[in-house]
């Protein structure tokens, strides 16, 4: 699952995930992602933008924790420097800096979605 509020970037991420041989779900907001996670079997990984309008990536992580989410692990995708907040390590497993190279995304997907 890719969660990104920029429709053009989301399309690129979804296309890349698909080309790399994985099933992709795209969500334009944190709320949309949470709704999709409630309705469908969970993905193995969530590529999550941190700075989104409406619900930020941090708020999505907080909501997943509140729901005691045991599904997919989260990879932060951000143009800004990121460091884990205390307690994030239960959900957040990796970080992809924007812009990322195809090889970097492929390594992350292969690491967490064998």
List the helices and strands and how they pair.
Blueprint: E1 2-3, H1 7-19, E2 26-27, H2 30-39, E3 45-49, H3 57-66, E4 73-78, E5 92-97, H4 102-112
List keywords for this structure.
single chain, alpha/beta, Rossmann fold
Structural notes for this entry:
The protein is of the alpha/beta class and about 110 residues long. It has a single domain (about 1-105), classed as 3-Layer(aba) Sandwich (Rossmann fold), CATH 3.40.50. Helices cover about 40% and strands about 20% of the residues. The protein is built from 4 helices and 5 strands. The chain has helices at about 5-20, 30-40, 55-65, 100-110, and strands at about 1-5, 25, 45-50, 75-80, 90-95. It has a 5-stranded parallel β-sheet with strand order 2-1-3-4-5. Strand 1, helix 1 (about 5-20) and strand 2 (about 25) form a beta-alpha-beta unit. Helix 2 packs parallel to helix 3 (about 55-65). The longest helix is centred in the N-terminal third of the chain and has 13 residues, at about 5-20. The mean pLDDT is about 90.
What is the CATH class?
Alpha Beta
The CATH architecture would be 3-Layer(aba) Sandwich
Element pattern in H and E: EHEHEHEEH
Instruction: Output the strand order for the largest sheet.
Output: 2-1-3-4-5
Oligomer: single chain
Helix coverage percent of residues? Answer: 25-40%
Number of domain units: 1
Concise synopsis of the structure shown:
39% of the residues lie in helices and 18% in strands. With 114 residues, it is α/β, with parallel strands linked by helices.
